[in-house]
Amino acid sequence: MAAKGDLLLEMSGVQKRFGGAVALRGTGLKIRAGEIHALLGENGAGKSTMLKILAGVHANDGGSIKLGGKDFVTGSPEASIDQGVAVIYQEPSLFLDLSLAENVFIGRQPKKGVVIDWKFAQSEAAKLFKELGVELDPKRQARGLSIADQQVVEIAKALSMNANIILMDEPTAALSASEVSRLMTVMRSLKSANKAVIFVSHRLDEVFAISDFITVMRDGATVSENPVEKTNLQKVIKEMVGRELNEMFPKTKNKVGEVVLDVHDLTNPAYFRNISFTVKKGEIVALAGLVGSGRSEVARAIFGVDKYESGSVTLNGKDLPKGSPEDAMARKIALVPEDRRQQGLFMIAGVNRNISMESFNKLVDRGLINFKRERALTNTWRDKLSIKFANQADPVDRLSGGNQQKTVLAKWLATDPDLLIVDEPTRGIDVATKAEVHRLVNQAASEGKAVLMISSELPEVLGMADRIIVMREGRQVAELSREEATQEKIIAAATTGKRGA
Amino acid sequence: MNLFSKLKISSREASLAVILFITIGVTGLINPRFLTGDGTKDLLTSTSVVAILAIGITPIVVMRHIDISIASTVGLSAWVIADFCKKNPDFIWWQCFVIGAIIGLAVGVLNGLLVAGLRLPSLVVTLGTLYIVRGAVYVVSNSIDYNAQEMPPSLLALGQKVYFGILPFTFLLVIIAVLATAFFMKYTKSGRDAYAIGSNPPAADLVGLKVFRRTFLAFVFSGFMAGVAGVFYLMRFAQVDSTAFYGQELAVVAAVVIGGVTIMGGSGTVVGAVIGALLVQTIQGGLAALGVDAFWKPAINGLLLIIAIFADRRIAVSSEKRLLAQRIRERV
Description:
The structure holds two protein chains of two kinds. Chain A is of the alpha/beta class. Helices cover 34% and strands 27% of the residues of chain A. Chain A contains 18 helices and 24 strands. In chain A, strands 6-9-10-3-11-12 form a six-stranded mixed beta sheet, with helices on both faces. In chain A, strands 18-21-22-15-23-24 form a six-stranded mixed beta sheet, sandwiched between helices. The two termini of chain A are 48 Å apart. The model of chain A has no long low-confidence stretch (mean pLDDT 88). Chain B has one domain (2-331): ABC transporter involved in vitamin B12 uptake, BtuC. Chains A and B meet through helix 2 and strand 8 of A and helix 9, helix 10 and helix 14 of B.
């Protein structure tokens, strides 16, 4: 058993090439026992490749990886598990049809003779869940579990494998604030058990709240390795981006015009009740609150994806029929959904097809698609949003997360909407692209569009919104102006329902 | 019922069994012959071939794959066995099983290598082998048919053998196979891996499951069962030509799906698959007993399939709603 502070794993000069593309050009990483270690970098910096090498998904092309003085074997997930490395991916990779106990022990089921000892597996799983402070029923099917609970199962799995090094890829990306703090408690308990926890995150406030050590990567190389007390937010951002970032939230004061969206007493008992608010021309209104508080559902109801039971939605003074995205689009509403891969894009279709998807009428020439117009449209939006791709027909699957998000934005901005709804517009994208998305959303508002933004990132809400509506468990609990809003007030309202001090 | 709870027969299998008994009961009320020992024996005999094939492909479907080459394999197995028997008049029954098994294993190995080894889509691979194997039957058979007089008496006698007045030998083998496979799927690592692989294929790779080996062996198993089904075919019909069991692969897939094995992988059991096969056969036998024209058979089979998938969908939607409600409650 390693003592606290012992060097467990050392990577140096590690290289990885995919075809012609160089993913890692000599990266280093030192992992010590009893340490929470943040691995930072923009999308494409090589963090995921590093994790995947340690996970055994890829083998490194060059450089050395030493585990306790011995060479670390890469290229096989089984070998990584045997060497005490466990990975918790961004999208938990549970088997939804199987029970939690089975998920914990998958591939290593305890046996009695030739058969699996289910009783033992269940009691062991229950013990692990208890250790982690989240008492889940081991006999329960994994289907229907929240992302946060799925992560707990993944962590229990890692513990059951006696993993000493636990890698987490953006573990908090899909969690609500209370779930994040629960995860942090779990991470601290792993730390006190002398495990090493390495995690990747784009939420820098969390990184500074929990980590002991920060390694920053850029363009496939390590640029800095510092204990947390020897660095700071500005320094880390500069190292990640490679230059000073002008402004994270380029907020401009816009001329606020007449009411575009008027939501009145909107109720769908399963998700939200009595929601009333307005969004005016040139205004950015944020819906804040915990994940699961009903924010996305309100947006979906406005756009007509889901039906609502009572209340009304008025757009530019006229009632909007419920349950019809076609009508919503015809009336110039755009919805950039929270899950771009599942809901926002056709992943295997080309960038051009995705961008022009909702602008069909602009492309049609005597009833047929005019591809010249599609090319022109794609180029226009590529330039406006500086989307990076090699070929127009490249499937969006191949773009980075940030460029995918810009593609979804382009698709909807191309429809020239009066009301732009953006749900978690910067989830899982790097700082520099985040700032760009903020600029784009802000620009849309300054052009006189009404913007409704849903975000779990408080700095984003505070930095972008003119007004903030806080939801808690399906109810609207506070409305704050830009001037009066603070992080504390929003958290207080979102978690207790009271307007805090 | 202890055995039932041991094998974790879920509510899906239980409700299917209830539907099966109701169907048998209703048919029996109208046509009492259906409930006699002979009626039961006929039902079980006529279900054996489809049932053994259903057991064979269940692990594959659970792994989110499919094997539609099985009916061709049955044809090849049956014809080659008959040919061997014709050329070796002193052949006895178990030698027929050996030949059938070898042929089935060969097709299974081919499918397994293509699907698991080269990671080609199983639907296309087995569509290919469906035609290749059927083509092989046409070529080797050269339009020669075989009848009862060319087959080993010991095999035909076994085909007629009935235990306790109702249980034919072939269905006895089906019962043994279903129990063994159900046990294997529930209690062994390989069996559980099959569910995991079908539930989330990329994750199966990430946790280091032996995806190649499991997938390969599942196809070998399916091929083996198809080879054995060839022997069952001979025992039942006592004749074979090059079109034997032509086009029956989808009837097996239908039985499996009706039996609650999800075509998207990850769930379902061999017990359900066999009950599904019995249900299809009972309804068809029942309708025949009621004097419904045999031309209705395929249409009724299709209707059953759609009802089954509709029921599955309803169950999935309602359980999803329940889980969501539970989550909302837990949070409050």
